[in-house]
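Database export, one record per block. Field names are fixed; values are copied verbatim from the stored entry.
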Amino acid sequence: MVEQPETWHRLKWPALGVMFVSGLYKFVKDNLYVVAGAGFGVAFLDRFSLTEAVGLFVVGVCLFAVYAMARFWRFRFSFNAQDIRLRQGLVHQTEVRVAFGRVQSVEVLRPFYFRPFGLVVLSLQTPGQAKPEIVLAGIDKALADELRDLMGHDAHASDGHTPLMTIPPGRLFKAGLSSQLVWVIGGGLAYLTSQALERWSETIEAGDWFNGLSDSILASPVMVVGVVVVLVLLVFISTGLYTMLVHWGSCLWVHPDKLINQRGALSTRLFELHRDKITGLLVTQSPLGRLFGVWTATVHQTSSEDLLAEGRGQQTFRLLGLVRSEVESLAQPILKAPWPSRFHAISPRYRRLWRARWVVGAIGFGLGPWAFGGLARPFEGFWPIPWHLLIAVAMAGLWALVAVRYRRWGWCLEAGHLWVRSGLVGARVQGVALERIQQIRVIQSPYQMRHGLGSVRLVLPQGELLLPFLGIEQAQGLANTVAWLVERQGPLSHNGRMVESPSLRID
């Protein structure tokens, strides 16, 4: 049989603009301190005239345009019924081959700038990778649907099916108010605003007017508070609107073999994940999310980056703006296990140990200046409240925080799945099937050894998970249970019912 020659495809010409913008963005991101910091003003604004600076900018843009054209010309891909190949590179050409059977998630993005041309961005990710291995930015939607069909992801699986849940815009707005994006946008705006005001105030024309305005604002405490409140409200509102637009119309479909999430107003994003590739479920609630009553659910898959430590990933299946009932209903379709009926508390000695540490540290910090007669007391003559009273208030606050932290810890083992709850002001619940645990370690400090305790550290495909201060019999029983399941290649017996190890005891 004569082997048919491979057909190599290229991206459509609008992808050239995307490569140009992405290359420019990557350069600015890698050299942010030079571009946005004081070095930019020294190197360009002070040493070159306006005409020379504009000329250098035009030259840089032309160089990036040539770079983008070379990348576009060298980018090719081909596929058959079993795998897909990608070739790219300017001087050193690299080739990536991915078998369709190893793909764990597929993402189809329809940006607003590709919609008039009928193009999409197709991303494929395999287990163990922090980023997608195949990214085709600028292919026909029909070709993307054909590739999804070859991978077993029916391109029309959600057509005519009612989604399991749809998140309304109001809850998406609340999720934006309670997300970490608030602090990112606030910090970025504060930095850019300070840089702009500093340079503007140095000009001769604006110097006197700016100094007079700043003096009048600072002279009135009410004015200062008003300006701060207005700026904070603008940051929160902009973050809420941004989150609402990005996740607009977020829907979840559950099929026997995969999960599908579609969202986005300007740019539509469709994310598909094989159910047999799911490694865990993480449910989080920030302090502001607890105030608004909204949760965030993240479906984990195998990745080379620690998604549990980072709290996010390049490719994550995430649902924002959930309420408590929706969170509990996700456990069954995602992990094929019910939401835990109750959580077991860890040892009270966790609370005692941390309280003792904080008390000793506070006493040492408070009495340290008085231990040496010649040293000045902290804040003497500056702070109106006595120093020892501040120490007492701090100790009381830390005492209460340790109690709250202790009550937040909890764990549950049901239907072959381990659930770990933690948090302080917010909440964090992680669920994982026992057969997904790659490594389990029982750790004992000298204090824990004296009191018959131990901590369990779990190594999961998506990161590490710690369960502290269990009874040593419980910790060792959990480790024995995981080893017992691995030896039998799964937690199911011959009749399909879940089997629990008799070595685990819950007191």
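Remark 1: The first helix runs from residue 15 to 30.
Remark 2: The radius of gyration is 28 Å.
End of record.
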